[in-house]
Amino acid sequence: MFFKRLLLPFGVLVALGLTGAALVVLAMALIYPSLPSLEAMTDYRPKVPLRVFTADNQLIGEFGEEKRVVMKLRTVPLRMRQAILAAEDDRFYQHGAVDYQGVLRAFMADIFSGSAKEGASTITMQVARNFFLSNERTVTRKVSEILLAYKIESNLSKDQILELYINQIYLGQRAYGFGAAAYTYYGKPLDQLTVAEMAMLAGLPKAPSRYNPMINPKRAALRQQYVLRRMRELNYINVAEYNYALLHPGRVADSHSIYSVKADYVAEMVRQYMVKAYGERVYGLGYKVITTLYKPNQNAAFDAVRRGVMAYDHRHGYRGPEDSVELPDNAVTDADLEDALSDYDISNALYPAVVIDASAQEVRAYVKTAGVMILRGEQLKFVQAALGDKAKPNLRIKRGSIIRLEQEDNGTWIISEYPKVQAALVSLDSHSGAIRALVGGFDFDNSKYNHALQAYRQPGSSFKPFIYSAALEKGYMPATLMDDLPISINDPNLNGGQPWQPHNYENEYLGPMPLRLALAKSKNMVAIRLLQAITPSYAHQYITRFGFDPDRHPPYLSMALGSGLATPIQMATAYAVFANGGFRVKPFYIDRIIDAQGKIISQTIPQVAGEGAEQVIDERNAFVMRSMLKEVIRQGTAEKAQVLGRSDIAGKTGTTNDLVDAWFTGFQPSLVAVAWVGFDKPVTLGSGETGAHAALPIWIDYMAVALNHIPEAQETMPPGVAYVPINPNTGKPDPSGAVKDFVYTDNR
């Protein structure tokens, strides 16, 4: 009787089971034929962004809807593969399309926890979902996912499936695949990551937003630790590696510094060129552009510009908090503080912070991504006048003030501010024109305006060498004497028709002096008289040899003082003529363009000095001008550059009327660099902010790195030039002369 009682419910269960199985079979029969073709996998052609590199293969930018670095499985580091398996599917190589052990484990875990927390998707199932399905939670979608997984496993090997997963999975921040994520989160290629960093990336697929280390660093760290623990349990890493990884989790790049080379302006130049040449489709074709930049040069230029701008800003005092917000009167929470900073981004390593408390002795502030900091003593030096009850209202730092902090080289945080002044630096190979470094402004994220290419400003005294070069063509020599005395000129084209009475910078006049010394000391009166002697019309025509636009340099005597307009790149190109022996080279920044299959589809073939480039001044002129521009550093306005300890550098300072623009244009025979400082809206830089004070330090900082591996050049005197005794009273050759200088020995 008891057996008969059990028979009925058992039969019902069997019937239900058979019915369920029949329904599953029916669903499979109906769904399987409608499954998509695997062509998208077998002929994998993802949208790969336009990527831009330095000449030494460092990524500086990528452009496209999706960030991708497509990789072959054999090029993916073993530890990265192990981290992925540990995080997502450690039995991937043992099970089929579905891991039934994993399903049972997840089911039991959910039963005991009373919620559906555990998943059981295999890597193959995730690949199916990523390629063909949505993330909706329906039975039909899940069945389709399982069936697709079986179809994939029937057609592709495990290695092929894992390779697709590694390249296709979304990992946050527009990064698809682990190759792209390595650059996005750490600013370096996958094979340069540590085990801890790989574990961080391997933890992302589960929930890219929730475990994003840029957005949720605490959650991301816990997930990273879980992956490392799984790697240890699976014996992928040993105890020492595990402990080291826990102690050295790696530092995630902020969203503004994900590249190891700071070259946003050049990356944007490339983007604009590529769109113009290939159209909008270029964003998904996987083209690779190799620029002419060198990583050491570019980073040195970026750092030099930043230091120069911040030094200028600190010289001119604190301007006051950036803004202010209302904070709750009672206990303030991290959420309140984060909300207060939500509209402020980290810009060029200047971190926004909201002040919690402030006194003359101490400031307590919440710093974005860094937490609460207490600053005292030297950390407050720059803003001391803005602290305390007696501070001027517009300067005062108080509770709720939005300020900026920066970290010094020794790791100390100080209160700073976002500067208003701008600067640019461009450097090129004087023989080929290849641009080795270019910084178009202080911060690309805040201003896309490229001062190195677009800013036409008065070059001031840095233009004088072209007037002197023209004078050499007219028979003047470095020892030629010219009066350095005040001058008054009646020229209807100058000074509104009133007498023009220019002056030397320090109102010091030395009387008759050799041109060599006059250029070194940047004597305005000598430059004007020299231009007057050779005529502005001749100089106006002559400067076109260097690539200057004559329409931007009117043929007036004020041209001697650099009253025309030029860009930093034009100045660099022009000075390259002196550096390379008289040849005009064309600056370029793209070396070659490579398509997705690795084929070079375009390459720049430069016209090199002496090998195709046009010779615009003879080698004697270039040689003598180099010697005179070296004098600027030996005993002139650029004496500070002697700190580099080289005898083969030359250049010229430039300062415009009312100290509006500051320049230094200089070179070593193989490398030219131009530094410029000024405001976007031309206004004075302030007292003492000459080219020597504001721009030259930037040039020095850059050249200290750029010339590090370039041996000192030895000059060879060209034919037609002699080094002879000079009579200092007449400026002419004299066998009994007390000084020596260069003269031409022929009349070419």
CATH topology of the largest domain: Beta-lactamase
Largest sheet: 6 strands, antiparallel
Give the terminus-to-terminus CA distance.
129 Å
Low-pLDDT runs: 113-118
| C-alpha-based Rg, rounded | 34 Å
Strand content: 15-25%
Looking at CATH, the homologous superfamily of the largest domain is DD-peptidase/beta-lactamase superfamily
Number of E-type strands: 25
Helix count, per DSSP? 22
User: Quick check: average pLDDT?
Assistant: 90
Under the CATH scheme, the architecture of the largest domain is: 3-Layer(aba) Sandwich
Share in helix: 25-40%
> SS-based structural class?
alpha+beta
Overall CATH class of the largest domain: Alpha Beta
Principal-axis shape equals: globular
Number of domains: 4
Summary, kept brief:
By secondary structure, the chain is α+β, with helices and mostly antiparallel strands. Helices cover 36% and strands 16% of the residues.
Description:
There is one protein chain. This protein is of the alpha+beta class and 748 residues long. It folds into four domains: 1-34; 66-255, Biosynthetic peptidoglycan transglycosylase-like (Penicillin binding protein transpeptidase fold); 320-416, OB fold (Dihydrolipoamide Acetyltransferase, E2P) (Beta Barrel), CATH 2.40.50.140; 424-428 and 443-589 and 618-744, Beta-lactamase (3-Layer(aba) Sandwich). Helix content is 36%, strand content 16%. The strands form seven sheets. Strands 6, 7, 8, 9, 10 and 11 form a six-stranded antiparallel sheet that branches. A five-stranded mixed sheet has the order 2-1-5-17-18, covered by helices on one side. Residues 113-118 have low confidence and may be disordered.
